[in-house]
Amino acid sequence: LHREAAICSRFLYKFDKKFRNDIGYRNFKKVNTALRKYLGLNILKDIESFHSVLPTDDDQYLPTRQMLEYVLVRLLSFSKIMERICVCSKVAAVFYLDRVKRGESHWMS
User: Fold this and answer.
1) Residue 57: pLDDT above 80?
2) How many domains, in total, are found in the chain?
3) Which residues form the Nucleolus and neural progenitor protein-like N-terminal domain (predicted)?
4) Alpha helices for the chain (secondary structure H)
5) CA-CA distances (angstroms) from residue 84 to 21, 29, 56, 77, 93?
6) Residue 108 lies in a domain
7) Average per-residue pLDDT for the chain
8) Is residue 109 assigned to a domain?
9) Residue 47: Cβ within 10 Å count
10) What is the pLDDT, as a whole number, of residue 106?
11) Considering the domain boundaries, does residue 107 fall inside one?
């Protein structure tokens, strides 16, 4: 998603003045914000650090409960961010597809 986030960010930067009051554009901005949060979320590092403290065959010590809760909270935040990206993308797509079906093209020029 790195390339898509960069394209979305550049599109928003270029057309900010023109479409700032457009409903679909606002949804694109929400998608871009969620993508930036996703890119800042380093969930793989957290899971790997938790996995590294899991015991081997003979060890009796387990990771603390707080470590497990932290990883679970990070996974929940990841799922909420991805849900936000999906919902806002679908809303923007439906909005613009309805405009195309109605034949409104003045917003593109």
Assistant:
1) no
2) 1
3) 1-108
4) 2-14, 16-19, 23-40, 43-52, 65-102
5) 21, 12, 38, 10, 14
6) no
7) 87
8) no
9) 13
10) 64
11) no
